Amino acid sequence: MNIGIVCYPTFGGSGVVATELAKGLAQRNHNVHILSYAKPARLDTFQTNISYHEVNLNSYPLFEYPPYDLALANQMASLIDYEGIEVLHVHYAIPHATSAYLAKQILGEQAAHVPIITTLHGTDITLVGSDPSYKSVVDFSINQSDGVTAVSEYLKDETYRRFDIKKDIEVIPNFIDLDRFKRSDKDHFRKAISPEDEKIIVHVSNFREVKRVPDVVSVFDYILKHDVKAKLLLVGDGPDRNRAEQRCRDLGICGQVRFLGKQEQVEEVLSIADLFLIPSGSETFGLAALEAMGCGVPVISSNIGGLPEVNIHGETGYLCDLGDTEEMGKYAVELLSNPEKHKQISKQARHQAEKYELGDIVSRYEEYYESCRQEL
Ligand code: GMT
């Protein structure tokens, strides 16, 4: 198939999932065309049957805000027309699903048999999409898509609850490459970070407020105060970094915390981790938690959104009430002080991650593409 994939290029989950899916499809000999405003972070190696198309966005003095949605629709129509796109799969409803609808209208009969598939990821529904400034257009664009998928049962239910959706939503969960996200021997790295064999706690995110990075620091402080020697590695960057740094200074624990910034090879950091913290205030899936579990790292998370579908309480880690950093700290201390329990939970975490294997999920998308094509 000739498949068009439209996504945000950022480190955020939706861009990562879209790019990894593109790579997985290309490996199965599909021709994949990725459309975005910049090269996606995970599109790191050259693959013969993946083409990357950058959206041309010219600015003119009259435009205070260049109309990206229109430039995108224009380029989607060209892709369908000149590259013979047979399926157009857009990740994140705003504005991708809307531009896709417009592209299809522009081409009329010529694109009538090209299904538009929209994958909902999260804030396009729970935050941005529910904003009254966008809600009607999101409602409309989802209903006009030929296929709609959501990354968790939670997101599916939330979408029906918040919008007036008449379409069936298929849940196709996120996935990981288990060959990449596995525990590998990084002993030299571990020794450099924790020379006195301190426990290593890791958090990975884009440091948006919703990730509650200062909570991560508070949980870590609880761990230190309960006689567990530990180091905290914070991977990523974003708006809340200053608040997290300030929390470290206030607690006097800067010497035990390393801000590593954005990292491409997250699996290397996860390979030396003893515990992963994700205390988010909103998370439709929690891809970062799944990546940690792939590397056999137990997860302590909040019990909100799609996280309980991924992180199983008492089995792969622990779920705690939102903001309850003391409870998270208690579970962390218990786990880090009990090697047998830790070993068992690590093993079960990896086992759980195996349910989200890249190949299986790519097959599910292929089947879904076919079923949408047949319905047109
Ligand atoms: O979480 C973010 O800040 C990025 C965001 C996105 O839209 O790229 O991630 C969302 O999609 C991911 C991939 O499906 C999910 O794993 C994340 O849970 C979800 N984030 C939120 O719901 C806040």
UniProtKB/TrEMBL annotation:
SUPFAM superfamilies xref list: UDP-Glycosyltransferase/glycogen phosphorylase
Domain Glycosyl transferase family: 187-351
Top-rank taxon: Bacteria
Cross-referenced InterPro entries: Glyco_trans_1, Glyco_trans_4-like_N, Glycosyltransferase_grp1, Thiol_BshA
Alphabetical list of Pfam families matching this protein: Glyco_transf_4, Glycos_transf_1
Gene3D superfamilies linked to this entry: Glycogen Phosphorylase B
Occurrences of domain Glycosyltransferase subfamily 4-like N-terminal (ranges): 11-180
PANTHER family on file: SULFOQUINOVOSYL TRANSFERASE SQD2
Protein name as it appears in the record: N-acetyl-alpha-D-glucosaminyl L-malate synthase BshA
Organism this protein belongs to: Fodinibius salsisoli
